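Researcher: I'm preparing a figure for a lab meeting and need a structural model of a single chain. I don't have an experimental structure, so a prediction will have to do for now. The sequence is pasted below. Please return the structure as tokens so I can convert it later.
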Amino acid sequence: MSILFIDNSLASVLPNQANQASNTTLTVNGQNTTWVGTNPQVTLRKADNTADVITATSVSVSSDTQLSASFVFAPDATPGIYDLVVDQLVLSSAFTVIELFPSLLSVVPNSAARGETVELTVTAENTFWVGSTPQVSMVYSGSLPIEFFATSVTVLTNNSLSAVFSIPENTSLGLHNLMIDQLTLTESFTVTVVDYIFSNNQITVAVYPNPATDYLHIEAETGALIRIFDLNGRLSNEIISQKKKTTIINLKSYKSGTYIVEVIHKNKRKTQKIVVR
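Model: Understood. Here is the structure written out token by token.
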């Protein structure tokens, strides 16, 4: 008399993938299994690291050959391929945890003047800020990057926060990168000027003629950084003064309007408003 052994096995799992930071219920089908009246233990085991295991938070048996298992995937769950394990049964490489990549989406408002205190609202995706203390700063996108930090940060949701900045009087005009921890929103914020011109630790600079039509002459120390901005803070020109003391700027590509000339040399700076006709 021979005895027939029937092999039991796992046949399928649906869905077969989930994102980090998600809650997902899996439907598992078996073959020749007898799950009714039992409490199966269901786990996902990293295919290349058996010590990396995610355990189902709840299991419900539907029939001898079908069950559902609920999983909570943490934001930092290891992405990659997993084996499905139900008690002693294994369905190899049956499930994938998909990695989410955080990014910054927008900042509102996206400009402020020197000396102004402004509260910004930042939106993002896949950032999971709740329960953390993000570091928020602005970094000038041109040469000689200058960084200044938010005076306060309030996390609103996992994907939004507010940050209060006091824009320094001596920071660079123009486009800045918004930085939150390791994330960057490139050239997303503009530092502009107000009607008055602030000057601190001034250096001797001569800018003429003013108003100007074809050419602008700037007399500054050798090696001085010269920048020209429009009143929206957009950088129009950036040069280093050479040995000849006078730098000549061709204005043929400039639209008529008011501009700001900024000269920086040895930690001193001066700004001057000019008109191009």
